[in-house]
Design brief:
The longest helix has 21 residues. This protein folds into three domains: about 80 residues, PDZ domain (Pdz3 Domain); about 200 residues, pyruvate-formate lyase- activating enzyme; about 120 residues, Rossmann fold (3-Layer(aba) Sandwich). By secondary structure, the chain is of the alpha/beta class. Helix 10 runs parallel beside helix 11. The chain is globular. It starts with 8 loop residues before the first strand and ends with a helix. About 35% of the residues are buried.
Length: about 425
């Protein structure tokens, strides 16, 4: 296919003083090819632009241009694209998992919530977990050729019958073959298990842990996440884990962690925060999660936030007389209250914590990341005379939109007299009060 037959990648920004800037690339340009290689997505761009000499085929204002440059050692190209896959399409999931959270979503949320994605490109770029069930020969060849490592794989079970039953897809039974192919191509994986009682727990879980651990460095980590359910899936035959089932899963996880800590110097297998909460146990210390690489998957999110705030306590200013509101989901409230007390003691500010429930998913969903904009409005309303309201950054997408399509800017307009910020940079925010 010739470069001018492709839609190419729309450039959204060019970083100053980078190679792209020196070559004359502009926001609004469409990059069609690099060194005569047509582009499908940002992965192609990174792969083919890794050369010292770069020639870009660019479309600008209906004209096709050629821009050339030579990159110095470690010099960034400096291009940002409007969409990572260029065609604004994403590989859809072909499984029919009864526990699928997407299919439990109510109406009235942002459009992307309803997309059942299973795209290996997003796995490589952003750490999304994929099942590998929808890959064709060209996909496998590309993964191997461009060495798309690591990938994040939803294994769920290495027992073929159990995995087939979970995904309701005959190709799901091929998971060991798929992992073998990744290993043969030098592709490493972070593995995930969504634990469903009576399906992949107990002996099936123990086998999964053993099989994945036996793969050595080819499987970089294993995270065990309790199945997440909403009030919209009560008739699907899937139920939450009981407290005892969570305890049993944690016991199985601790057994392999003992081996991993002895043999590999790191825990390797991690239970998600919700596993401890559902078991009625205290969350582990930050060291349990090693480098917190899986925070986006709910593994160590609470301890990462706690460690970040506690590490910055000595840098916080005195804020006597200031009133600060912390908004969260019900599962996080006890831990946030402890942090609030420490911040208050250090700064002299008056901190109040409030928990709210999800009006979209129902009371079974207790995490802050699934609270809608309307939920935050309801939680903040009684405290509109405070100085600052902080909430979890995980409730927003990359465009600062909540699940119900309310934006962070919209939320601020509801409370114009109150400063409202996501809590990703607590110290920086408090320093500006």
């Amino acid at each position: 296919m010739k470069p001018n037959q492709l839609s190419g990648g729309l450039v959204s920004a060019v970083e100053p003083d980078t190679l792209a800037d020196q070559m004359g690339l502009q926001a609004g340009d469409v990059i069609l090819a690099v060194n005569d290689h047509p582009l499908r997505d940002v992965i192609d761009f990174r792969f083919y632009a890794a050369e010292e000499e770069i020639e870009l085929t660019v479309q600008r204002d209906g004209r096709e241009l050629t821009l050339s440059g030579v990159r110095r050692y470690d010099q960034p190209v400096g291009v940002e694209f409007a969409h990572p896959t260029f065609d604004v399409d994403i590989r859809r999931c072909n499984n029919k998992c009864e526990f699928c959270f997407v299919t439990q979503s109510p109406r009235g949320m942002r459009r992307t919530v309803y997309i059942k994605d299973d795209d290996y490109r997003y796995s490589f770029l952003f750490g999304h977990f994929v099942t590998l069930t929808n890959l064709g020969d060209e996909d496998w060849e590309r993964i191997e050729e461009q060495h798309l490592s690591p990938l994040y794989v939803s294994v769920h079970a290495t027992d073929p019958d159990a995995r087939r039953a979970m995904l309701i897809n005959p190709r799901a039974a091929l998971i060991e073959e798929h992992l073998d192919r990744l290993s043969a191509g030098g592709i490493r994986a972070h593995a995930q298990v969504v634990l469903c009682p009576g399906i992949n727990d107990g002996e099936v879980l123990e086998r999964t842990i053993r099989d994945l651990y036996a793969r050595g460095d080819d499987v970089l980590s294993l995270s065990i996440v309790p199945v997440g359910l909403t009030e919209f899936n009560s008739d699907r035959g899937v139920r939450p884990l009981t407290r005892q089932e969570c305890v049993e899963a944690l016991t199985a996880i601790d057994a392999v962690r003992t081996l991993a800590l002895r043999d590999r110097g790191r825990g390797w297998c991690y239970a998600a925060d919700e596993m401890f909460l559902q078991a009625g146990l205290d969350l582990p210390e930050s060291s349990y999660f090693d480098d917190h690489e899986l925070v986006a998957n709910g593994v160590g999110a609470v301890s990462a936030l706690s460690a970040s705030i506690r590490g910055d306590l000595d840098d916080l200013p005195r804020l006597s007389g200031k009133r600060i509101l912390l908004v969260t989901g019900t599962s996080m409230l006890p831990y946030l209250e402890d942090l609030a007390d420490e911040i208050s003691t250090k700064t002299g500010a008056s901190l109040h914590t409030t928990a709210t429930t999800s009006t979209l998913y129902g009371p079974m969903v207790t995490t802050a990341g699934l609270l809608a904009g309307a939920d935050h409005i309801r939680a903040i309303e009684p405290f509109r005379d405070f100085d600052l309201a902080l909430f979890s950054r995980s409730a927003l997408n990359d465009q600062d939109m909540f699940l119900d399509d309310l934006s962070l800017e919209d939320l601020g307009q509801v409370f114009p007299e109150l400063r409202i910020c996501p809590s990703e940079h607590v110290t920086d925010t408090l320093l500006t009060l």
